[in-house]
Amino acid sequence: MAFDAREFLKTVPECPGVYRMLNASGEVIYVGKANDLKKRLSSYFRKHLPSAKTRALVEEIASIELTTTDTEIEALLLEQNQIKAYRPKYNILLRDDKSYPYIFLSSHAWPRLAKYRGAKRESGEYFGPFPSGAAVKETLALAQKLFKVRQCEDTVFANRTRPCLEYQIGRCKAPCVGMVSAEEYARDVELTRDLIRGAGQEVINKLVAQMEALSAKLEYEKAAVVRDQIKALRHVTSEQAIEEGHADADVMACVERDGMAAIHVLFVRGGRVIGSRNHFIDLIEPMDVALTQFLGQFYGEGRQIPDQILINHLPSDLEAITRWLFQLAGRHVAIRHSVRGIRKKWVSLAENNAKASLERHRQSRHVMESRWVQLTEWLGLSRLPKRIECMDVSHSHGEEARVSLVVFGQDGPDKKQYREYRVTGITAGDDYAAIRQAIERRFSGDPNFFPDVF
Description:
The chain folds into four domains: 5-86, GIY-YIG endonuclease (3-Layer(aba) Sandwich), CATH 3.40.1440.10; 101-238, no CATH class; 249-361, Nucleotidyltransferase, domain 5 (2-Layer Sandwich), CATH 3.30.420; 388-449, UvrC, RNAse H endonuclease domain (Nucleotidyltransferase, domain 5, 2-Layer Sandwich), CATH 3.30.420.340. 41% of the residues lie in helices and 21% in strands.
């Protein structure tokens, strides 16, 4: 039975709330929020919808569920919680924060530095998130070169009886065997902490004061070591544009074309651009509404929130987003649209990257779409498949058989859906039995997730 939008809209209240769109199988396919539910939901059922993705969504709707709220902030929080719970296919679904690496400084008596991903279970300080593993590696290498804080595991540290290779090549002070005093090591840890936070000039000032103090004591060799640290640090900081006040900011630029949008995020810490990330969206809502949803997911996973967010396109519900960020961060977070000076350069840089990445993404998608059309023709299918799965088996001389499953959607490989099956109870080397067992296990689940082509 077709969804009767006209009758449904008669019952929708004009108040803030969250709506859930469901398909014929009862699966939640989209979650949204609105300050005025009636006005927002009416916009889906106009005669001429500009976006093909929105038209596809509306065609799938079998029912809509509503939850009204007292305030816009309650609606925003409920929307984010339900997107996490249902993971609807038409919503903006960002990778969670576990995909972003951090730098971890342990709370050990002799703290260690390490690259870290995943849930923050260990006791210590976490710096980040960083946009990529390369950015973490570069920062760790610089910190190790300058201040020689250990990066070895605690078990290795506890069992050393003599200095390791890192000490021999000047990358560690060997606290494991007492080659450095606790006071000196604590000072190095503090300088490392300031460096990672982006306070490069403060570190230089401390090092200058330390060098002068050593020179006054006629400890010229130690003063020369500190001088080299200052020289190396000045070289690094001179390669990046530094903003007065050591600004921390996330710089976002969004551009859209033909129902698709790219959001490029620059991470600025201590006035330095430390990296960036691209996110791509198939637009269901107008850009300002989609941007509100993006911000809710981007900062809703425990991500570090900077003092300011610079953006080239203001989100809808700006006031609600600002209040929500204040609740998360425990301080005011400025969302700024009109900026000058170095901040304007950052926004321009992000915008140029967003345009270039969107064009590359569109070209890549066009190539992928043409391959799907060709495959559909070769297989004599009546419509484009939405999901293709491929299986293969491998083993070591007949033992330890494994069957791998890879999944392709219309945008390419869907690596989150990849699976590996361990095969047991078969004759060694019997690939047919291994595949049979994996297929039986694969197709014992929900038919709604069966592939169109296998």
